[in-house]
């Protein structure tokens, strides 16, 4: 439970820093989390849902890929 709370707090803090400093300079930079935030602020729920789903699927794909690479490399080194 502690890890989940700390992970959530870290994510919120990172998102705040991205919005304030480098990830949302109008006309210059825009990160996916800022796009998602804009969609929610504008009540564009369909776009927000699709973007959030795509971000989750990407994260799952990355974790799965890294897990498979780790298993493969452990098998080769033994």
Provide an overview of this structure.
The protein is mainly α and 78 residues long. It has one domain (2-77). The chain is built from three helices and no strands. It has helices at 2-22, 32-41, 45-77. The chain is elongated, with a radius of gyration of 17 Å.
List keywords for this structure.
78 residues; mainly alpha; 82% helix
Mean pLDDT: 87
What's the end-to-end separation, in Å? 35 Å
Helical element count? 3
Give the tally of β-strands.
Answer: 0
Q: What does the largest sheet look like?
A: none
Summarize the structure.
The chain has 78 residues and is mainly α.
Chain-wise SSE layout:
Blueprint: H1 2-22, H2 32-41, H3 45-77
Helix pairs in contact: 2-3
């Amino acid at each position: 439970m502690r890890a989940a709370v700390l992970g959530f707090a870290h994510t919120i803090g990172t998102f705040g820093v991205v919005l304030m400093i480098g990830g949302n300079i109008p006309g210059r930079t825009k990160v996916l989390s800022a796009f998602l935030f804009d969609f929610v602020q504008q009540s564009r729920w369909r776009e927000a849902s699709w973007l959030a789903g795509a971000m989750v699927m990407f994260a799952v794909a990355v974790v799965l890929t890294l897990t498979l690479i780790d298993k493969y490399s452990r098998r080769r080194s033994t």
